[in-house]
Amino acid sequence: MPAINRREKIMRIAQIAPLYEATPPLKYGGTERVVSYLTEELVRQGHEVTLFASGDSITNAELISCSPKSLRTDNSCIDPLARHYVMLQKVAEQSERFDMLHFHIDYLHFPFSVNNNYKHLSTLHGRLDLPDLKPLYEQFSYVPVVSISDHQRKPLPFAGWVETVYHGIPADLHTIGNGGGNYLAFLGRISPEKRVDRAIEIAKRVGMKIKIAAKIDKVDEEYFNKNIFPLLDHPLVEFIGEITEIEKRNFLRDAVALLFPIDWPEPFGMVMIESMAAGTPVIAFNKGSVPEIIDNGLTGFIVENVDDAVKAVNALPTLSRAECRKVFEHRFSAERMANQYLSIYCRLIENKNPINRTNQQQILNSLKSNINVCG
Where do the Glycosyltransferase subfamily 4-like N-terminal domain residues begin and end (predicted)? Predict the structure, then answer.
């Protein structure tokens, strides 16, 4: 059978996003933001894309609303799973419209998808080192899934891994800055595993201002009030709170470096590539995906502790902001991400047999080996 050229074949693709945030989110949000970047790039390339998401989402694709608005902003939502099951039914009812259904809701759709004939793929966006996940992925080991880093796979080596696809963002979303704000940046979420306390300690020890742009989830309010709020009363510390995508641009451009002092197996870490896109190097603790994303000594420094991070701040003048941007353009653009997914879609479509327990290993091996089937 002749190879499919992804540049000539128009695909009908469904992207199924979580409903917790709009796609893209107005402020903080990882998964829905990635789904948005992927969706818009596929549309830009001429594919027919349908986005199943919350009604307040904004897209150039066809939008099918599965909740009036994002669940985080909907005070009437008590059971978010109920809203997602409504979405899954809508997807199943329209599945024949699509060549490929791409899910971003982790394992929630597995019982639906394995009992239908549609072609499907799941990108797993969260941490996978939770004990409850092992029997689930053993049961559904034949479902084709994509990891967002190689490290993310480690707890579940038996899952139906097809490929690792690193996240990407639009090349024009950020422009290179000069770090003229003379501050260190912390961007993301306040939680025990993100360790903003480490970031504050690093800034104090080097005598440099730190700006903290971070969301506080309700579940982390007690942690913030008890452990972080007392640390904010210092002349070098400025707490900004949650910021928009537009505000993020100057926030990263003007920073000398981004601090990423995590204390958990981060599956990816979008803020690292956003920072690189602005030419801003990253000082990150050696956890999770960090060694896959940061080129030590080129786009930042990978450190083991606060002492190492302090040394890294002092070594920042040895790095080139232009190189940070260059690496981003080569490795982490939305176009590269979309093209990689298109290749996987083609391989799945070329396989004419349904993926089930009987033929799972044969088909998954074929999907992994026929990497050039789309040209």
Answer: 28-131
Per CATH, the number for 183-331 is 3.40.50.2000
Question: Which amino acid, 361?
Answer: Q
The average pLDDT across 333-348 equals: 96
> In the CATH scheme, what is the homologous superfamily, with its name and number, of domain 12-169+335-369?
Glycogen Phosphorylase B; (3.40.50.2000)
Does residue 250 contact residue 183 with C-beta atoms inside 8 Å? no
Torsions phi, psi of 200, nearest 5? -65, -40
Q: Could you write out the DSSP letters of every residue in 245-282? A: HHHHHHHHHTEEEEEE---S--S--HHHHHHHHTT--E
pLDDT reading at 2 higher than 70: no
213: Cβ contacts below 8 Å, ≥ 6 apart: 185, 186, 187, 240, 241, 242, 243, 247, 248, 251
**How does pLDDT run across 230-279, given as a tens digit for each residue?**
999 999 999 999 998 899 999 999 999 999 999 999 999 999 999 999 99
Using DSSP, state whether 187 is helix, strand or coil: strand
Please name which of 3, 268, 237 lies closest in space to residue 147, comparing C-alpha atoms: 268
The pTM for the full model equals: 0.90
Q: Where in the chain is the domain with CATH 3.40.50.2000?
A: 12-169+335-369, 183-331
